[in-house]
Automatic annotation (TrEMBL):
Name of the protein: 2-oxoisovalerate dehydrogenase subunit alpha
Biased composition (Basic and acidic residues): 249-258
Keywords, in A-Z order: Oxidoreductase, Thiamine pyrophosphate, Transit peptide
GO biological process terms, semicolon-separated: branched-chain amino acid catabolic process
Organism: Rotaria sordida
Region described as Disordered: 238-258
Domain of life: Eukaryota
GO molecular function, one term: branched-chain 2-oxo acid dehydrogenase activity
Domain (Dehydrogenase E1 component): residue spans on this chain: 108-216, 219-306
InterPro entries in the record: Alpha-ketoacid_DH_E1_comp, DH_E1, THDP-binding
Role description: The branched-chain alpha-keto dehydrogenase complex catalyzes the overall conversion of alpha-keto acids to acyl-CoA and CO(2). It contains multiple copies of three enzymatic components: branched-chain alpha-keto acid decarboxylase (E1), lipoamide acyltransferase (E2) and lipoamide dehydrogenase (E3).
Entry's EC annotation: 1.2.4.4
EC class: oxidoreductase
Coiled-coil features, chain-numbered ranges: none
Length: 350
């Protein structure tokens, strides 16, 4: 389901609010004559049919009443939906122009991501990796977005959009290596788990800082920025450090997941279309489980990156203060080697 906004509308709203604030402050502090003030107030009366134009193309009524717009007092923007809960196309003229092969790939990527999530989430609970965030309930927004982009389009993902990488061909071991932070992973353990990145797949490394998910929401439509807001339900907890039952009903989440689960709806649509069936689905379930478990076992055996890695690749050349810190760290580890499982790590070459 999608909501579409124009970014310019948001910017316009901010500009209008700021303009009103400035106007009110100016009026209250001005030493102008009563006539001038009265004239200004007349120009800003909410019932007066005056229009304002920003940037030459946005128009709106001017008012001097600053108010918060509350959701219960406005009509919500309609949400666009293609598939209903039975996997049927709601508007036949909007039937997607996918080949069977395209549809099967998207479904397999969504469900493979589910299997990967389940195994890595459980591995964190067992203490085998340090942190994880699942994608349950949001996988369709990842795969759908990735399928609509060109393969070389640059993506600025956020930390719950692994499906984009899955669709573009990121290997299972690449996901798992990154979460282990082992010597084979691209980040060598100096980045948080689930913060993936791939130069080859035009996917900018994920960051934990706020608002990094905004750039990929902006595209060009008739030479205007457009924001597409995908409305979905995050089924899992925010992360392995979170218990979402503290702020939402688990029963409600489970109920909505059974009704609106994106993978289930796509599967039903494929059944209706005739390109998938229960036998194929059962076999894929077994195959995907085996694929992830084999990749996990292989990644777990791979040694962690050398502990010196945390000081490397920060600058073009290692600065003196980092050299000093690395030397101090190595001396500390040498003196307290009984407390460090060095056999799990590759030895540093520096």
């Amino acid at each position: 389901m999608f909501r579409v906004y124009s970014n310019t509308r948001v910017i316009y709203g901010l500009c209008r609010a700021l303009n009103n604030q400035i106007s009110k402050r100016y009026q209250s502090s001005s030493s102008s004559t009563t006539t001038t003030t009265a004239a200004a107030n007349v120009a800003l009366e909410p019932n007066v049919s005056k229009m304002s134009m920003f940037s030459g193309h946005i128009k709106g009524a001017i008012t001097n009443n600053l108010e918060f717009i509350r959701p219960e007092n406005i009509t919500p923007i309609s949400m666009y939906q293609v598939l209903d809960s039975d996997g049927s196309i709601k508007e036949k003229s909007h039937t997607p122009n996918f080949t069977d092969e395209d549809l099967i790939k998207m479904y397999k990527d969504m469900t493979l991501l589910n299997v990967l999530d389940r195994i890595l989430y459980e591995s964190q609970r067992q203490g085998r990796i340090s942190f994880y965030m699942t994608n349950f309930g949001e996988e369709a927004t990842h795969i759908g977005s990735a399928a609509a982009l060109n393969a070389k389009d640059l993506v600025y993902g956020q930390y719950r959009e692994a499906g984009v990488l899955m669709y573009r061909g990121f290997k299972l071991h690449e996901f798992i290596d990154q979460c282990f932070g082992n010597a084979r992973s691209s980040c060598k353990g100096v980045q948080m788990p689930v913060h993936y990145g791939s130069t080859d797949l035009s996917f900018v490394t994920i960051s934990s800082t706020l608002a990094t998910q905004m750039p990929q929401a902006v595209a060009l439509n008739e030479m205007r920025p457009v924001l597409i807001e995908a409305m979905t339900l995050r089924v899992g907890h925010h992360s392995t450090s979170d218990d979402s039952s503290a702020y939402r009903s688990i029963d409600e989440v489970r109920s909505r997941d059974k009704r609106d689960n994106p993978s289930l709806r796509v599967r039903k649509y494929m059944y209706n279309r005739g390109c998938w069936n229960e036998e194929k689905d059962e076999q894929w379930t077994k195959d995907s489980q085996k694929m992830v478990m084999e990749a996990f076992a292989n990644c777990e055996k791979t040694k962690r990156a050398p502990i010196s890695t945390m000081f490397e690749n920060i600058y073009d050349k290692m600065e003196p203060h980092l050299q000093r810190q690395m030397k101090e760290m190595k001396e500390h580890v040498r003196q307290n080697h009984d407390h460090f499982p060095l056999s799990l790590y590759e030895q540093s070459s520096t």
